[in-house]
Amino acid sequence: MTRRARLQPHVTTVATDDGLVLLDERRGRYWQLNTTAAAILEHLARGADPRTTAEHLVSRYGIGREQAESDVHTFLEQLRSAGLLDSTPDTDRPTG
Predict the structure, then answer these.
(1) pLDDT tens track of the chain, all 96 residues?
(2) Sequence-distant (≥ 6) Cβ neighbours of residue 36 within 8 angstroms
(3) What is the DSSP string of 9-47?
(4) 52-86 burial string, b = 16+ CB within 10 Å, else e?
(5) Measured between alpha carbons, how far is residue 90 from residues 2, 4, 5, 39 in Å?
C-alpha cells in the first residue's frame, strides 16, 4: 500500500515568510517549521518518497545526498513522534 506523508486531521497549517506553522489542535501545541522543513513536508505531501525528497534537497540547497536523506528521515520521525502524521494508507492512489 502507498503511504503519503499526510498530517493528522487535527493539525492546521499556516504558511509564513519563514516557512510553515503547524498547530496541533488537540494538544494546543505549535510547531514552527523553517523553509527547509516546510519544503520537505510539501514535497512528501505531494506524494514523493523520502529518497526523491532528499534528491530535491540536494538540488535545491546544494547539500550532500547522505545529509539530505538523514534530514528527511529525522524530520519524518519527529513528526511521527509528535503524533502529527496520519499513518492511514492512501486509498485514492494506485498500488503496485
Answers:
(1) 445 789 999 999 999 999 999 999 999 999 999 999 999 999 999 999 999 999 999 999 999 999 999 999 999 999 999 999 986 655 444 443
(2) 19, 57, 61, 71
(3) TTEEEEEETTEEEEEETTTTEEEEE-HHHHHHHHHHHTT
(4) ebbbbbbeeeeeeeeebbebbeebbeebeeeebbb
(5) 6, 7, 10, 21
